[in-house]
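[09:14] KT: can someone run the structure on this one? pasting the chain below
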Amino acid sequence: MTSSRSVLDLMVLVADKNIEFTIKGLLSRPQALGTREVSSRVVPHPERDPGCFLRAKEFLRPFRERHRHALVLLDREGSGRDEQTREDLEKDLEERLAPDWGERAAAVVLDPELEVWLWSDSPHVETVLGWRGRSPTLRTWLTQAGFLQEAAVKPARPKEAVEKALRIVRKPRSSALYRQLAEKISFKRCTDPAFLKLLQVLRDWFPVAG
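[09:31] RB: done, structure tokens below
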């Protein structure tokens, strides 16, 4: 969402187009997020995850006067700091952003990667991935293919599971798929810590009026 105002609510720096389209899809649903409408700009870093982690401060500095808040999103895997925890990476980034942004900036690290947000029990997942009406069901296939343990909620290797499922149905992987899912999937039963942090940050910054 964009705004004609000189100052936007939110500047979002992301690692790639898939995260960009996901965030745009999420921000288009303020009621589901539990926020007011948010004017925003979402920009992928040309150096992807390592660029977001190492150079977010310099990248975002020119935007601080015309944006009320800044948000950085990247995958833990591929960041160049894969051995560190999500929490440590977020803390590191936020400390480096603080001199320019104070408490107006936050970092969200997707663990291990964006696709962990995609996998839910929503029927929209099967539809968007082109699996609806197939036998076995998508969840059964995930288990049979070794991506999903019997008691697990999400695949341990979420990105590989998405790529394999799309290859089977011969559907191209595109950023548009991520936006479609972000615009449709319910957030109510999501338990992913990074996603819950994102929700809380957005609700704190952009509360519903009244």
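[09:33] KT: thanks! The longest helix spans residues 86-101.
[09:34] RB: yep, looked fine to me
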